[in-house]
Amino acid sequence: MSEERLQKVIANAGVTSRRKAEALIQSGRVKVNDKVIKELGVKVGPGDEVSVDGLPIEREKRVYFLLYKPRGVISAVTDDKGRKTVSDFFVDIPQRVYPVGRLDYDTSGLLIMTNDGQLANLLMHPRYEVDKTYIAKVGKIPDTQAQIQLRKGVYIDKRKTAHAKVSILSSDRQKDTAIVKITIHEGMNHQVKKMFEAVGSKVIKLARESFGFLDLTGLSAGQHRPLSHQEVEMLRTQAQGNDPKKIR
């Protein structure tokens, strides 16, 4: 685990919010390795001891999982309507993990779960261009012009989507339905559904089959597996390598 800002470490330990953690630091109530820290922006590593009001904080181990989310499950930690959430699949995990992005209630497929906020932000930000591939069953087969529009970008919610990869896997002319593979790297709300709506097709069923180089091989709906250290580092490298700010 790399170094993180002190206020973030305090917040991640569940002591208080990040903003209140900043106030604690500025008021001299935080120590790092028995030294009072009052300046914001100080970074601490895994070996540093952090205490608030003399009490050491418990720094949670970073964990990473790949979940095959079934349909009919909320991509959230809790749900006020009492519906099943992705957190229900991790009741045996001591850490509290959160979904990276979201999949709609009626969408199945690959979801990354972690308590590493820094990596989650890297993977969710459209600037970093991590590909996400979906398989969609749609009503009204997209014609050649519709496919070109999807590839070049369509306007949804007054924003134009980035270029996408689109291919028709199969079609049923009698029912006017098609199975379409589409790859995007953004994460706008209901994006894939709205993209197809923009070209006159309606998504009947949707599943995310891959995220970057990760796929669902070996998993059934509702199952999860830990990501290896190598996979986590590959995800981090892939996201950072796609950052246009780092391309000279």
From TrEMBL:
Keywords on record: Isomerase, RNA-binding
EC number: 5.4.99.-
Superkingdom field: Bacteria
GO biological process: enzyme-directed rRNA pseudouridine synthesis
Pfam family, one: PseudoU_synth_2
Isomerase as UniProt keyword: yes
Broad class of enzyme this protein falls into: isomerase
SMART domains: S4
Family: Belongs to the pseudouridine synthase RsuA family.
NCBIfam families with a match to the protein in the record: pseudouridine synthase
Protein name: Pseudouridine synthase
Organism for this UniProt entry: Agrilactobacillus composti DSM 18527 = JCM 14202
